[in-house]
Design goal:
There is one protein chain. It contains seven helices and 27 strands. With 437 residues, the protein is α+β, with helices and mostly antiparallel strands. The strands form seven sheets. The protein has a seven-stranded mixed sheet, covered by helices on one side. Strands 15-12-11-25-26-27 form a six-stranded mixed sheet, covered by helices on one side. β18 (293-297), α7 (319-324) and β19 (329-332) form a beta-alpha-beta unit. The structure holds fe (ii) ion.
């Protein structure tokens, strides 16, 4: 359970993300030796532990970093939404104990938190982690740029794990979220930035430190996803560590409660005008026709009023697909502030946006898709001067908060979606309510 002198428990989605078992998978890091490891669980208040399947591990042996392992084991057989305790055992001895919550079913209301651009080890990242802890989400979705600035192992160890695995929750340190709360995340440009493995053999750690569903398009390295280059040995070390995650884990989808999530790679090399890729999104959204809510998450926003990254709005090409298949909200980051669009429809051919200015903040049924930029999770804020300068906003922008770090809290039940944007000080800076009936 120890790595670099620290205990780093973690948890993320199990690859078979759907079905009746509501399975999740726990992850933890260890040195290269030790074990074998097992995971056991018991429902809150119960005495009897129940073993799960034997844990499996992935060996990370990239140049320049002490070889270590990422272990994982599935958690099954728990009542949806119930509290439970779990232990990791090494050679039969418990080495880590924590509590968590089983995934909720479609009939249970749920709450999730969204933010991005976070892994900076900044005071504001820790404040957001602490406020997230106070919000008690069922899961957390990160919109990319998970760690700065090169997606490398030491950056995870200095700027990500300590903040989200802080021993105690506090605004000064962060919060112990990873051991108890489900995380999912999209790859940002900083997460996949290092493609030259001779320069940074531990680049693109996203592909072995995260475990997410492998149900996206298969992908071809260098076309759909990030490139790998360098000596045969360094590229092989990366590919051995990443296994089947690379390149496929750049895009995936999952269900949580009554909502369906489609997570896509917004980085420039991914050409979403390619019909083969766009068809995957269409099929995925069609498959979710029974979900009460459809969310899409990726890094680079298609609709952004900030002067920062203004030229990178290539993802708006997907707007007609989102509209045709009933996407409710698109969550993005990349731009380090908060922006809410009017409910809108957009035609990439004519570049015309049709805005629903009557929705205001609901409650009601918006006519179009609402696009959120929620990239104020820890990195330096962009364009604070634009918050009060409405004449600098694009016509599709309804709310623009760039003077304070913030995160998004969403409460979903079958008929209503309540969305609040909360500042690093815990005060609400925006809210709106979508109803379907
Ligand atoms: Fe970014």
């Amino acid at each position: 359970m120890r790595l670099g002198g620290r205990t780093i428990p973690g948890r993320t989605l199990y690859p078979t993300w759907t079905g009746p078992h509501l399975r999740t998978r726990h992850l933890w890091h260890t040195a290269d030796t030790g074990g074998p490891f097992e995971l056991r669980v018991r429902a809150a208040g119960k005495k009897k532990w129940r073993g799960t399947a034997q844990a499996e591990s992935r060996r990370i042996a990239v140049s320049g970093v002490e070889p270590h392992r990422v272990w994982s084991a599935p958690v099954t057989g728990l009542r949806a939404g119930s509290e439970f305790e779990y232990q990791v055992l090494s050679a039969g001895t418990p080495v880590f104990t924590a509590t968590s919550q089983a995934r909720k079913s479609a009939s249970q209301p749920h709450r999730f938190v969204v933010f991005g651009d976070c892994g900076q080890n900044s005071p504001e990242q820790k404040q957001i982690a602490y406020q997230t802890h106070l919000a008690k989400p069922d899961f957390i979705f990160l919109t990319g740029d998970l760690v700065y600035s090169r997606g490398r192992i030491p950056e995870y160890r200095e700027r990500y794990f300590p903040v989200y695995s802080a021993p105690e929750a506090s605004a000064a340190a962060g919060a112990p979220l990873l051991k108890s709360v489900l995380f999912a995340g999209a790859p940002g440009n900083h997460d996949i930035a290092e493609t030259d493995f001779d320069k940074y053999p531990d680049g693109q750690a996203y592909y072995y430190y995260w475990k997410q569903p492998l149900n996206g398009p298969l992908g071809e390295p260098g076309k759909l996803t990030s490139k790998t280059q360098g000596s045969e040995a360094n590229v092989k070390a990366f590919r051995d560590a990443a296994g089947s995650h690379y390149p496929r884990m750049a895009n995936f989808s999952f269900d949580y409660g009554n909502a369906h999530w489609t997570v896509i790679d917004g980085n420039r090399y991914a050409d979403w005008t390619d019909p083969a890729l766009a068809d995957w999104i269409i099929k995925d959204l069609r498959s979710a026709s029974k979900a009460a809510w459809r969310f899409v998450g990726f890094h680079q926003p298609g609709f952004n009023s900030s002067k920062a990254h203004f030229a990178e709005q290539h993802m708006r090409v997907l707007a007609p697909i989102f509209e045709a298949h009933g996407v409710d909200v698109v969550f993005t980051g990349h731009v380090h502030n908060y922006q809410r669009s009017y409910p809108m429809k957009y035609d990439p051919a004519t570049k015309k946006a049709t805005l629903d200015r009557k929705f205001e903040k609901g409650p009601g049924r918006p006519n179009g898709v609402i696009y959120l930029v929620t990239g104020a999770g820890g990195a330096r804020l962009y364009n604070p001067e634009q918050q009060d300068a409405m004449d600098t906003w694009q016509e599709f922008t309804q709310v623009f908060i760039s003077k304070i770090h913030s995160f998004t809290v969403v409460d979903a039940d079958n008929a209503k979606l309540t969305i609040r944007q909360i500042g690093a000080d815990g005060k609400e800076v925006d809210n709106f309510v979508i109803t379907k009936r």
